[in-house]
Structures are given as C-alpha cells and as structure tokens.
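Below is the data:
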Amino acid sequence: MKIILTHEVSGLGTAGDVVDVKDGYARNYLVPRGFAIRWTKGGEQDVAQIRRARKIREIATIEQANEVKGQLEGVKVKLAVRAGDAGRLFGSVTQADVAAAIKAAGGPNVDKRRVEVGSPIKTLGAHQVSVRLHADVVAKLGIEVIAA
C-alpha cells in the first residue's frame, strides 16, 4: 500500500515521504496513530505542505546537528517522578518527559519525536537515551530519574 508519512518513523522515513508498506502495517499501525495518510492524487499536494513544515523544524546541516549534540551531551538532566518504596515508578518515563527535562535543565529545545528510549524506563536511577538529531548524528544522553 502506498502511504504518505506525516511524522518521522524510525526505519521507514521522514514526514512527507511517499513509501510502500504492507497493507496491514499501514491499516493497523501507521494510519490509526496518525503517522501516515493513504496516498491519493490529492494527497500529493499535502506532501509539499508537510515538507515545508519539516524544513522549518529540522536541523539542516550536519554541523548544526553536531553543535546541538555537543550542547546536549554537556547537560546534566534530572527527572523527578513519582515512585513507590522499592524504586518502581508509577507508570514510565515518556519521550515527552525527557524532552521537557532537557529544556528545563537548560539544554536546547528538542522535539519529543526525536527522543528514542530503548526500553521503558520504570525504575529510579541513571538511564541512557538517544536523541536523533540528523540522519547521521545521534546524541547519547544520560538522564537521572529521581523520586519527586
């Protein structure tokens, strides 16, 4: 099935790309979550608008990405969350939580869709997350989850 991506999907493409995927993947995952729309002739006009919006948001060059990476890796990020007695969290830490914590710690403004949390963070302590700044630049960021 031919679809137009509306958001960046890791391993598939970025917003505005027209890609071919299996029918079930598009119908059951991408379209219901708002990551993609079905391709139509009228949808091709939407692609230009999505690409313009993406250009405004994205980091254009590798030099800019490396500069932001240096800023990110120099920031100490602490995230205060509610936790139980044994150090288990009530819920888990999301990409939006990490992006907000980076900004609160004095780091650059990072889009939550660029934050990649490997496995769900459900305990207190030090954890590692990645921020994909550019196709070739990924910043590794250590965050410390503390009890609120």
